[in-house]
Structures are given as C-alpha cells and as structure tokens.
Amino acid sequence: MASTPDLTTDPGNSEGGESNWYRWYVLGLLTLVSMFSIADRLVFAILLEDIKAEFDFSDTQIGLIGGLAFAATYVIVGFPAARLADRSVRRNIVAGAITFWSAMTALCGLATGFWTLFLARTGVGVGEGCSGPASQSLVADYFKREELAKAMGFLTIGATVGTASGLLVGGQLNELFGWRWAFVLMGLPGIVIGAIVYFTMREPRRGRHAPKDAQIEQQPLFQTARVLVTNRVFMGLAVGWAVQIMIGYALAVWMAAVMMRNFELSSGDVGIYLGLTFLIGGIPGPILGGYVAGWLTRRDERWRAWLPGLVSLGCVLPLGLSLSSSTFWPFLIFFAFAYAVYVASQAPILSGIQAAVEPGQRGFAVAIALFFNNLVGQALGLFVVGWVSDWLAPTQGTLSLTIAVFAVCLVSGIIAMAVFAWTAAQMRSSGYLDRMATD
User: Fold this and answer.
1) pLDDT by residue (tens digit) across 391-423?
2) In whole angstroms, what is the distance from residue 181 CA to residue 175 CA?
3) Domains observed in the chain
C-alpha cells in the first residue's frame, strides 16, 4: 500500500494541510465515484425492457434483480466495510470498491438468464456497499460542520449525474451495441477512476472538525451499535431517508419503462429525454438544497429534518401531474420539477447523519443508514412497484406501472414527512441542539 501523508504537517494551511482547491478536488473526485456508482447501478433501468424481452421476465422478476439482488449484498457488505472505514485508510477502500463493482457491472453483460444476472448484480452491490460510508466520512473530515450541507449537496450531484448518465449513455450504447455491450462499456471506466483515487487522494486526519469532546477513536462493535441505535436523531434521519428514498428509486428505475410503455419510445430516445430531464432537475436541486439547508440550519438545526420532510411530500404533487399527463412534453416538464424538489432533501439528510454521530462512528452510521435505505428504499420499494404493477395489469394494461409508481411515491412521501417531523422533535428532547450550540 502506498503511504498516506499526514496532512496536519503540510505547510501553508491552518485547517489540515491541504489548500482549498484540493478539498474541492477531493469532493469532485468523490462526486465522480458517486456518479459511476449510480450509473452502473441504474443502467439496468434503461436496459430492462430488452432484458425482459430476451429472457421473458415478469415485472416482479425485474424488481428482484433491480432491487433485492443489489440491495441484499450491499447492506451485508456495508457493515464490515464501514467498520474498516472508521479505522483504516478510507481512500484505499473507495479505490478498491469502484474497481470491483465496475468489473462486476461488465460481467452483467455475460448473463444467460435470471440467476446469472441476479448473481452479477449482487457483485455490483458488494463493491458499491464499500464506498458510501468511506466517502461520506471523508467529506465530513474535509469540510467544517457549517460547510457540510453545501458539500453534501455537491456530493449528491454525483447521484443525479450518475442517474442521467446511466439512462442517457446506457440507452445510446444499447441502441448501438445491444444491452450486453452496454453493461461492459459502462463498467470499464470505473477501473480508471479507481486508480486516480488511489494515487491522487490523501487521507485527512479523522475527526478534525468535530466538537472538542468528540469520540475520535473507534469503539468496540457492540458498543458502537448500541450507541447508534439509541441515538434518536440519527435513527430518525436514517429511517426517514429509507422511506423517502423509495421515491428516488421508483423514479430512477421505473420511469424509463413508464415512458416506453406510455409513449412508445425506443430505449435510445428515452435515455436522451429522461437523462437530460434528470440533469435539468437533478443538478440545481441538491445544490439549492445544500445552500438552503446551510442557511436554515445556522438558525435552527431542526431544519436538517424539517426540510427533507417537506420536500419528500412536496414532490408528489408535480409527480402526479407528470404521471397523469397524456402528452409527452408536460410529462417531462412536471417530472423535472418533481425530481428537483425531491433531490433537495439529500444534503440536509446526509449532513444531519454526519453531525449527529461521533467521528469514530461515522462510517458505521452511514452503513446502518444505507442498510435501511437499500432494504426499504430499494429492495422493498422496487419489489412493491413491480408487484402492484403485475397485480393491476389485467385491468389497467400498460397504465398499471404508472399507477404503481405514483401510489408508492405518495405513501412514501406521507410516511417520510411524519418520520422527519418526529426526528425534529427528538433534536430538542435528546439534547442534540444543546450539543450543536456549544460546538
């Protein structure tokens, strides 16, 4: 392993050894990793109609491959990877993770049926399960708490651009080379990104922006788990995120199929239109959410819970207008607005999780949050959409998937609003606000 410089001894910087541009370079590189993570995960969405046709899969089987196959291993691997991230060199974990999941994405192109594609997708989950905790922990050590919502907002752009890239690039590759080569060509660039992370990213001192009495060193596993699950603010944010991200996965995975079934478009056309729509709504949304969350939380920390609750429910109205549109352009315009509102929630959630836990717990806290996120938001959410669509198909025909997507998003928005409101109340009763005030 390459040695990691001690940034606290580097000259010319009072914060931790690196220049301001280098902090943003690291954030940009981690955002790129996030982009490829989501692109490799969600390229399946633009390819699923062709995969379904070749193997004669049902929507339920597609939901299992898109959700459970990925999420099950993602959450299982995430816990040991997070423990490692709380005591080891996080840069190495991120570099190894993107290299592995990129190779497994390419192997999806060799699938011969349900189980081979299912297993290849589990491999993608293994790799991606290792990167999230380490990446978010790194950001928390490069940026101060008052900057964290803004930084997390920019990190969230990676997911937005990755969603768009998976659809846009994946759709074009599918048109040109077929779905098998689309998987291969989407997977290969991540191996290069892994090398860039390993050779150019430096490891910051852990917990350097934490409160003075913060616990920096990693504690025993069961003690860490006990502290986190009894942390009402953290658990509220984690559960609320899991519920509201059912909306995000429903839109990212199923909207391409909705467009193909409702408007009779090719995968290439859907990739272009939907990919650009994700960019138009998804880039300003998290940036604005990060800046607004930073401004609001300087006045009241409870906005880290109030804001995602409001936008989780608020995005449902324009989404309903989109899905009920019988013409194409109103469908896209309302969808872009709904997605912009939805992704504004991510910065306050991610920054809130990092602020609510000790530095020595950050990686494991993210792993717990992602456990709920993927088990509820991805595995359960995608399966329920597919199951409801199959159940409604005999009476609703091609509209069954549209109805299923909206129903799941509406219920998720209502529940998420309630969970985040409860979390905001816990910030006062648990002493969280007092602790933040003394930082």
Assistant:
1) 999 999 889 999 999 999 999 999 999 999 999
2) 10
3) 18-205+220-437 (1.20.1250.20)
